[in-house]
Amino acid sequence: MGLSRRKQVLLALVAAVLGIQLVPYGRSHQNPPVLDEPAWASPETRALAVRACFDCHSNQTVWPWYSHVAPISWGIQQHVEEGRSVLNVSEWNRPQREADDAAETVAEGEMPPALYLPLHPASRLSDAERQILLDGLSATPGLGRVGQGTGRRGGKRGHDAD
Fold first, then answer.
1. Considering the domain boundaries, does residue 10 fall inside one?
2. What letter would DSSP give residue 36?
3. On the CB side of 12, how many CA atoms lie within 13 Å of its CA?
4. pLDDT > 50? residue 162
5. Cα angle vertex 142, ends 137, 143, to 5°?
6. 145 falls within a domain
7. How far apart, in whole angstroms, are the C-alpha atoms of residue 11 and residue 140?
């Protein structure tokens, strides 16, 4: 008595999902040490940045339970690595490719990304909070000013990184 085709497909799918859990990519979930941070304009600016930006743009990522499940873990790891590569406020002593554009990116509504918000409701900022963050980013040395883009991604710090 053999298994039906449907059961065979289901078993193969379960085996595949279990098998990819053995692939190590996206499983480090260890944050590098914090080396240096910007001279934040205020504690409130930093607190709002922690809520809305730090998971992808610092070495203080909070890894939720689903970040341990492949293939979701692979995508999350890739997004965090990409975010840290363009702006990492925990490694301020190193060149930051897009630091000069941080305020402008928030002002344009590009950050935090829409796909991030549903699973991270605390990162959703009210209009007033967004304005406080924008003002604070604009007042924090190296994080740019709204409306004063450099015309290229990254500004002076980013140029040093190229």
1. no
2. B
3. 7
4. no
5. 30
6. yes
7. 55
| pTM (two decimals) | 0.77
Rounded to whole angstroms, the Cα distance separating 137 from 88 reads 14
Stretch 24-46: mean pLDDT: 86
pLDDT of residue 153: 34
Other beta carbons less than 10 A from residue 140's beta carbon = 22
**Residue range 63-88: mean pLDDT, rounded:** 90
CB within 8 Å of 64: residues ≥ 6 apart: 119
Residue 84: how many CB atoms within 10 A of its CB? 20
Task: Report yes or no on 119 lying in a domain.
Answer: yes
Q: How far is CA 67 from CA 30, 34, 153, in A?
A: 12, 21, 29
Q: How far apart are alpha carbons 103 and 11 in whole angstroms? A: 49
pLDDT confidence band for 158 (50 / 70 / 90): very low
Residue 61: which domain range? 32-161
Count of the separate structural domains present in the chain: 1
| pLDDT confidence tier of residue 150, bands split at 50, 70 and 90 | very low
Straight-line distance from the first to the last Cα atom of the chain, in angstroms, rounded to the nearest whole number: 64
